[in-house]
Each structure stands twice: as structure tokens, then as C-alpha cells.
Amino acid sequence: MIPQTMKAVVLTGHGGLDKLVYTDVPTPQPARGEVLIKVGACGLNNTDINTRTAWYSKSVDAGLGSGSTDGFEKADAGDGTWGSGALSFPVIQGADVAGEIVAAGDGVDTARIGERVVIDPWLLGHGDWLDPGNSGYFGSEADGGFAEYTTVRAANAVPVSSALSDAELATFPCAYTTAENLVQRAAPRPGETVVITGASGGVGSAAIQLCRLRGCKVIAVASPAKAALLRELGAAVVIDRSAPDLEAAIREAAAGLVDIALDVVGAPMFMPLINALRQGGRYSTSGCIAGQMAEFDLRQLVYKDLQLTGATICPPGTMQRVAGMIETGALKPLLAATYPLRDLAAAQQAFMTKSHVGNIVVTP
């Protein structure tokens, strides 16, 4: 029996954690081409905090780490989302859903009811999927999974057959599709050396696994306390993120220069990574959680023939590819902690401290 109302955490506006309100809202109904999913678990990601604080707004210069307390007062309401668009409040966030299809809208095969699924958060349109106006994000341009039920178009409900729990499955969608795109953009080849910053986070830990599957040597940059687990995931060397000379530490770990740098940290590590790249090296970034403003010696780009790429919008089929690797056991979940949905604010606070390895999820 599907209830008429459900519990959800609603984001009421740009601001601090007080903008997250746990309340009763109407249970959504699947439109044509959509399914209704009973949420088993929903993972957290940086987009939730970035959007809440309007960190994406070009007028905001505060780092993400201070996102629970300041920075958002400078925001321009017209460009508060990842694609520099406006956000309509109230909105239910949460992109990383694992759950079960419990109802189907018109045009959807009712045989799908009862399927266990993960949601592909990229709501790509037909045509140019790299056009932000044609590429919405679940939990941003559409209500997401910080609720007991959610709707999504049927094509984005990706079936998964796995013995993993819903909480473990909810660590995959955003982090692992982002990491797969980040890695793909740099096109690593077997035998190459890759350095990965923010290696203990959801994207970083996924990138370690994905690079090892491609036959690369991985150098991880993280807290020493997390080194043992990162080696278990496949890192050959773990460098202290507080190393006084990061470039020198990378060169020592690589016994020379590296082929690829995968970065989610940003400003403080940008130039050391660039300097540690070999001739023709590749740098790919999907985030800048420690600072978005970096000085850049353009001579490194010009005279070292470097390739620099951003990695945000994931190509069609990325979630399906990740789901296949989950089913074969090639990818391992890293569940750092589970919170009840009502405690989403506390979960976000823990997420922002970055003291965990992997991802944090909430369960209704």
C-alpha cells in the first residue's frame, strides 16, 4: 500500500543546515514514462552541499569546507546550480538512490514493479547531452531521493542484481559514475602511472579501483590514517596530503614524473600536480573542494603539451557500465556511515569534515 504522504527532507532555500527541513509531503505519482521507487537508501555527495550553499554561483568565493556556515550570503540566485541555472525551492535533494520499483506510470511495463534498482542521476535529453540545458540532474533539476519515495523516468532506474545492501548500493551512483567519467576523460593505458587527490573520498576511492582495473599504477594523496584501506583498494603508494612539497613527494613515489593526474581537491594541489606531469601528460578534474581559484603557470601547459579536461556531465550508458561492474564484483562499495533520513543535517556535517573513507548514506 503506497501512502498518500511521505517523510522527506526539503531544502527550503540557499543557506546553512537550518534550510534542511524534515517534514511530511505528498507522495509523488509517476507520470507517463516514469516509475515510483521506494527508497531503501540515498547517498550524500558534494552537489548536495554545493547547491544548498549556492557555491556554484560565480559570486561565491568561499571554499566548500565552510559551506555549512558562510559564503551563501553572496550568492546570485540566478546561477546557484551546477549548470549555472536557478533553483526552484522547495526541492528534495539526493541523487544516489537504491531501492525498489513499486509503481509504473503509463507506457512503462508493469513487469518492472518489484525490480531492485539504482538511479542514474543524469537526466540526459535527446541530442546534445553535453548541453547543460539538455542535461538535468536528479535531486537538483528534479526532486531526488532524500525521501521515502521518489519518481524518475524509467530509463534512469537501472536494474541491479547484487547481494549488497541498499546502503552499500547507494554509495555508487554519483561517486562511481563521476569517477568513471573522470578516468575516461584522461584515457589511462595499462602501465601508466596515475596520481589521485582526495583519494579517500567517494570519487577518489572509486577512481583508485577504476584505474587499477585498467592496469595502472596508482599514487593516492590522502591522510596517512587512511593509507591501509587505500592500499587494499589498489593504491601502490599513499602520499600524505599535508606533505610540505607535494610535487617532490609525487616525483619520489613515481620514481620520476606521472602520466595522469586526477583531481577533486583543487587550488592547493593544482600546480604541484601540473608540475609533476610528464611531457604530454593529462590532468582531469571533477571538483575543487579545497578551493576553486588557482594560479596557473601557462608555460607548463604550452611547453609540456599537456591536456587538461573537466569532467562533469557523464555520457549516456555510464551508470549501466558501473552497474555491470557492481554485479560482477569488480567494484567494491565503501560505506562510511549510515544515518536516519531525519538526521540528514548531521550527516551533511559529518560529510563536510572529510574524516571518512568512501561515502555516507541516509535511510528512510
UniProtKB/TrEMBL annotation:
The Enoyl reductase (ER) domain sits at 15-362
Keywords of this entry: NADP
Q: Which InterPro entries match?
A: ADH-like_C, ADH-like_N, ER, GroES-like_sf, NAD(P)-bd_dom_sf, Zinc-ADH_QOR/CCCR
Matching entries from SMART domains are given as:
PKS_ER
**What superkingdom heads the lineage?**
Bacteria
> Pfam families from the entry?
ADH_N (PF08240), ADH_zinc_N (PF00107)
PANTHER family named among the record's database cross-references = QUINONE OXIDOREDUCTASE (PTHR44154:SF1)
* Protein name (database record): Alcohol dehydrogenase family protein
Q: Which organism is it from?
A: Leisingera daeponensis
